[in-house]
Design goal:
With 181 residues, this protein is an alpha+beta fold. The protein contains 4 helices and 9 strands. It is globular, with a radius of gyration of 17 Å.
Length: 181
């Protein structure tokens, strides 16, 4: 029996896994881009297209800790600025389109942190976007329903809910600042 694109992705990532560096993120980005090009008739991908889950875990590596999730997003869905704590993340768009903005965190005159939007990138089907630890970004589904894959080098639920290392931002009077925990 032939291996699915998902099985090939897992094998390739496991083969190239190591400490965070340019080679690892480049290899994982390449592998995720290959996964985005999977044949839509593969049962796991056909099921995602049919079921359109808000979030589904596709793979969790018990040895290395990385996690691959699928997210279906309706057009217009906006996820405000946030970081991923100590984690690095790769987003990939399989179907639809997303705009991902990046931000710099500055200290305001009142010593309160505020964000300044640096840029926005259109991420179309087959494209990936990498965020390193500490990077701040937002996402907006610009053509949906979109199917996005999110590859994280560790479990973000633990990073967020247990370790409390993820920072989420809120807009107050036109300024993005740290949200209330």
């Amino acid at each position: 029996m032939a291996k699915s694109a998902l099985d090939k992705f897992v094998e390739a990532v496991r083969s190239d896994w190591g400490p965070l560096n340019r080679g690892v993120t480049a290899a994982c980005s390449r592998h995720l881009a290959n996964l985005l090009a999977a044949d839509g008739s593969e049962p796991w991908l056909a099921d995602l297209h049919h079921q359109q889950p808000l979030a589904r875990e596709l793979y969790r590596d018990t040895d290395h800790g990385f996690v691959l999730l699928a997210h279906t997003e309706p057009a217009g869905l906006y996820r405000p600025p946030h970081d991923h704590g100590r984690a690095w993340v790769i987003y990939g768009v399989q179907r639809g389109e997303s705009e991902m903005g990046t931000y710099d965190r500055l200290e305001g005159a009142d010593a309160q942190p505020r964000l300044v939007r640096r840029n926005a990138t259109r991420v179309a089907p087959g494209q990936v976007q990498v965020y390193l630890p500490g990077d701040i970004h937002d996402t907006r589904c610009t053509a949906g329903p979109a199917l996005l894959f999110r590859f994280t080098e560790r479990d973000l639920k633990v990073e967020d809910k247990v370790e409390r290392r993820i920072t989420r931002y809120v807009e107050r009077e036109g300024v993005w600042t740290v949200g209330v925990a």
